[in-house]
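Sequence only, no structure available. Ideas?
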Amino acid sequence: MKKENKGKKSNPGPRTEENVSLLPILAVNFIGTLGFSIVLPFLVFLVNRLGGNAFIYGLASSMYPAFQLIGAPILGRWSDIYGRKEVLFISQLGTLLSWIIFLGVLFLPVISLFKIESGVLGAFTVTLPLTVLFFARAFDGLTGGNVSVANAYLADITLERDRSRNFGKMSISENLGFVVGPALAGVLSLTAYGNVAPVLGAIIISLIGILLVIFYLPESKECAPCKPEESGNVRKFFGYEIMKCKITKGIKKPGFREILRIPGISYMLGLYFLIDLGYNVFYTAFPLHAISTLNWSIAKMGIYFTVLSGLLILIQSTVLPRVSRRYSDAALIIFGSLMLGTNFLLLIPGNVFLTYLAAGFFALGDGIMWPSFLSLLSKVAGRKYQGTVQGVASSSGGLASITGLILGGLLYETLAGTSFLIAGLVIYTVFVLNFRLRRFEEQIVLRNR
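Reply:
I predicted one. Tokens follow.
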């Protein structure tokens, strides 16, 4: 929060402004992803051990986005009214409690509640620990507004010209979590505690995230982006924009209908849905594909996700900063979606070489497209209701996740590797629709004149 600089001063001369960098929010984002990815490699094996199948795995995975569909718009709206920091604290606390419940799942007896045998859904058993696992993921989703609020936080403290690069830095922090998480899970799972160790790691990591929010994250709602000529206090610190802070007052309660009336928002929310739909068909189908077709173990799957995340970091730290200076957000979104769609097609044959080649296309496509898309979304939204817009966008993505995660399990159960063709066609549809985004950029330029 903004404080008066009284008493002893570390720098000579009076200071009436507070500086905000991206470093704390990047750390919070990294911690959140690390806590999730540390249990990702063994989740599919855990669901199978507790009585589930591919359909139940997709359904369990969809619990988080299903309840995020409810929670994210509300939390994003609250962040516009009460501040980003308070809402991020609520979200981090919910994550901590959900992992504590998840830990309890590992100690519950596998008591069968009922069995299902279906030609469409397959055969599975609903057990007591599986039910509690569903509840843990649902509770985390209900308080899971951290992504949307973090994106709004970034938009608060970043100049428009730097949005694409800084959203790329957010993606780097997220992907670092995906690099460290599976690797750490592999090491911890080799200990005498087995699957308990990664979950304990997630609990500790979530607790660290809460402490970061409390002690190191300033309130961004007091920090408004300004043009360089409007402030002498805008400068670079470790490559991040430092913004001029001022009190923001008189924020009225934003309405969802008002948000949807913002020009271009509805179209971008539709694209957000389709992109997330393609992603989540992949995220459900690929672990199943890796086990049944590639015969991969947890360790091999962890290595693959580590390589994929490492390539994403490479693209977002070296390629994205350069191309974002030369090309518009819309151009990068168009190119990235073409590369991302090609990635899914390479997964269909079930060949190890093509699977790793696909990881390169995924990294190039996602690494360029997604930060640019978030950047353009924040620009279309404007400054006034960033939290609400990002919350509604997360809700749209949550709806896509529910559809994609359940559909991914069903598709792989019936189509096997051909299910990746569906994901590819979805992203190629996005590629075609993305050409309209050039018009949105023209409108933004006219609006800012």
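Confidence is low (pLDDT under 50) at residues 1-19, 223-250.
Hope that gets you unstuck.
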